[in-house]
């Protein structure tokens, strides 16, 4: 049978309270007591019950994560940073990879609730009424990472997606491009979809460039989608001089589609992406990209939800907005 804390106390010849003090790392524990208890723990191969400890402390030291697509380079990079930071703070992660499925997301949220985890980090932007109700009634901190929160009741750690897309488009215009195509995903996605699309349109309007509907293509943010949209674009009579893709994965897909048709990038057509993920750097030609601070996004997300966990009454009034910047690589050249 598995040893209990009472067995440890009996073997060490001390009280259960003394063993508990050692296990909880309390101060002012004598060296003699520490040695007795640790020897008993080793002899009995004792490990404290995680469930019992969580019931006593009202903490499970567990954070739940909702990820829309773990194969996406952007999310996998942030998740790595989240795991490293959470581990350093003593948390274990439970990751729900929902593959853009809202029913699956709701199931994970219910599981997180039943397991009484300490907090949830959401990285998926699409919500339905059931999910919104869960957020509003949850008795645990919920933080939104890299996306907009559905209301002011929750904290978001993110960049300003509108401003970043505006800045990227304005850069293209300053470099001489006026025929600018835009590849986006689902516009129901507020951050990567609606806000970035609006930033692109805002920059065109600011500089007096008329929107060309044939240059605007909607996909699903994935590499295969970027390739498909490039195929569609190349069947048109009028072509852009540059493609601005809402994600780096889409930009790489567009690059592959261009190369398949014998186009030279950037001599015949330029391509830029968004996120600054590793895939943009390793392909050839490498992809110019609007960079998000992905490591910082993951780290700040964990640090802030940790604050909300240990200080339940803490109220943070404004979203945490991190800085974006453009990384110039080989896939773009100015228009003469």
- State the major sheet: 6 strands, parallel
Shape: elongated
- The radius of gyration computed from the alpha-carbon positions, rounded to a whole number of angstroms, is 25 Å
Low-confidence stretches: none
Instruction: Give the H and E element order.
Output: HHHHEHEHEHEEHEHEHEHEHEHEE
Task: Give the proportion of residues in helices.
Answer: 40-55%
Q: Give the strand order, joined by hyphens, for the main sheet.
A: 2-1-3-4-5-11
Beta content? 15-25%
- Tally of alpha and pi helices: 13
Mean pLDDT: 92
First-to-last CA distance:
79 Å
Question: What is the number of E strands?
Answer: 12
Q: What's the topology here?
A:
Layout: H1 5-12, H2 16-23, H3 31-44, H4 50-57, E1 62-67, H5 73-88, E2 92-97, H6 102-114, E3 119-122, H7 129-137, E4 142-145, E5 155-159, H8 161-174, E6 180-184, H9 190-206, E7 216-218, H10 223-234, E8 242-245, H11 248-260, E9 270-275, H12 278-282, E10 288-291, H13 294-310, E11 320-322, E12 325-327
Parallel strand pairs: 1-2, 1-3, 3-4, 4-5, 5-11, 6-7, 6-8, 8-9, 9-10
Antiparallel strand pairs: 10-12
Helix pairs in contact: 1-2, 1-3, 5-13, 8-9, 10-11
